Amino acid sequence: MPENNTILFQQLFVGEQLYVIPEHSLQKEEIAVENSQIATPVEEKTIVKADTKVEEVKVLHFVPNHRIVILVDEYSEADQALLAKILTAVKLNLNQIDLVHLADLSQMNARTAFSQNLISHFITFGVALQKIKLEIPLNPYQTKEIKNIRFLFSHALSELQHDVEKKKALWKALQEMFL
After folding, report:
1. CA atoms of 130 and 105, how far apart (whole Å)
2. What is the pLDDT of residues 100-147, one digit of tens each?
3. Are the C-beta atoms of residues 71 and 132 closer than 8 Å to each other?
4. pLDDT grade for 179, boundaries at 50, 70 and 90
5. CA separation (Å) from 166 to 9, 62, 87?
6. Smallest Cα–Cα separation from 156: which of 68, 97, 73, 70?
């Protein structure tokens, strides 16, 4: 420490005990090593190295068009008719929701849509949320609200076709969720 700074410190801190910390100068090699160890985040793409081939994989983010998202695994014409009736009962239609297939969503990162509150209602028919890498345990026909998003798990639409008890339980949960 230069002497002129010592006199200044003595004037500023009269009566206080001062400690001198020895200066350690880093070698240029040490600085280069430290800078090379800093990890830089990679957005939108991940580099996968398999043997000698280097492959670039782009991460697709799920961005819904509507605030209500319905997730299904399988979907037939009969399922579509039932879903249309279910939505009509809660004053909605197929044009006001995003109907997403598990096969499509499993290839995308859905966390962005949830973390940015792009979704207000998320209903899954026969698909556990763990399949899309969301660790949210849901009980059938019980709504759960997390960070202003209402979640509902129901059995698959094909199971609901002829099961009156499951339809009643779904109706009760949908009333709680929408009406």
Report:
1. 12
2. 999 888 778 888 888 888 999 999 999 998 898 888 899 999 999 999
3. yes
4. confident
5. 79, 30, 16
6. 73
